[in-house]
Write a structure and sequence with these properties.
It contains eleven helices and ten strands. The protein has helices at about 5-10, 25, 45-50, 65-75, 100-110, 145-160, 175-195, 210-215, 235-245, 255-260, 275-285; strands at about 35, 45, 80, 115-120, 125-130, 165-170, 200-210, 225, 230-235, 265. Helix 6 runs parallel beside helix 7 (about 175-195). The longest helix is centred in the middle third of the chain and has 20 residues, at about 175-195.
Length: about 290
């Protein structure tokens, strides 16, 4: 081979350049396919997170669940029958833009109100269930929320079955003023009547359970349970610190803090919830045995 041929071949070699991805290539990964944990900051496939009941695969952080997701994870498939589905709020105080905000929340959440109630079974044990949903007005407690929960308690009393409620709420709904606050008394009275008749009440507090909800029906269960790391409080942390002029513990108003101070009976990991609730339902049957 001639020397000139070597030089001519080298000259025909293509130079390599770094490739910059186009804008279209940057969006090849579908939105929502990955989820970042707000606690440990690790990233995981959303599909795997959903399979694990929205509990972080790395640190156990419990992501919020909406009412439909809770139904799917808790109630026997095909057993749930909803009632009062079409009950909607009015605007008794003529609060500006309230009806428009309610309509936007209906479109966004596909719910008519901040709580879903109905009858179903958990491992074939019949119950009446109420699930608050923070995707509607932050789960705030208005007249309709109070009425739906009260009617659910009365239905449990009528059927002589346990009443289970999942709470998730920002508290009383300010647009309904004192009418919202009265729901604390109404639901509490209904629970007291149900309890006097021998009814079993299980309250499961999820993140967040605050304000008038935490101060009424959420804390009145025969069993007061919670998920790990849930915020459970009446007033805000900053308000309390300013009032008492003291710095509060870092874990103040968490489910772990409340358990330590006797306000909760147990903290239950979401993946174990059905098993634990089934056990509670079982021991309240004739001849039931505790297997915690």
């Amino acid at each position: 081979m001639a020397l000139k041929d070597l030089f001519s071949k080298n000259q025909t070699k293509k130079k390599k350049y770094a490739q910059i991805p186009t804008e279209n290539a940057k969006h090849d990964v579908p939105e929502g396919i990955m989820t970042k944990c707000p606690s440990c900051k690790k990233i995981m496939y959303t599909k795997e997170l959903l399979k694990n009941l929205k509990v972080c695969l790395h640190c156990g952080h419990h992501f919020p669940m909406n009412s439909r997701e809770r139904l799917d994870s808790f109630i026997d498939e095909g057993s749930f029958v909803e009632f009062n589905e079409n009950m909607i709020s009015k605007n008794p105080l003529n609060f500006p833009d309230y009806l428009e905000k309610l309509e936007k929340d209906r479109e966004k959440s596909k719910l008519n109100e901040a709580v879903v109630t109905g009858i179903g079974t958990v491992n074939e044990y019949k119950i009446v269930l109420a699930i608050m949903d923070a995707s509607f007005r932050m789960g705030s407690m208005g007249s309709v929320v109070g009425e739906k929960i009260t009617q659910a308690i009365e239905k449990a009393d009528e059927l002589n079955v346990p009443f289970i409620i999942f709470t998730a709420s920002g508290g009383a709904r300010m647009q309904e003023g004192a009418l919202s606050l009265m729901q604390m008394a109404k639901t509490s009275v209904a629970l007291k009547k149900f309890s006097n008749n021998g009814g079993l009440i299980i309250s499961i507090m999820t993140h967040p359970t605050t304000g008038g909800v935490s101060a009424s029906f959420a804390s009145l269960g025969d069993f007061n349970l919670s998920e790990p790391g849930a915020l459970i409080a009446f007033a805000g942390r900053r308000v309390i610190e300013q009032s008492i002029r003291e710095e509060l513990p870092e874990d103040f108003q968490t489910s772990e803090f409340l358990l330590k101070h006797g306000q909760l009976d147990a903290i239950i990991h979401r993946t174990e919830l059905v098993e634990k609730i089934t056990n509670i339902l079982e021991i309240h049957q004739p001849g039931g045995v505790l297997r915690w």
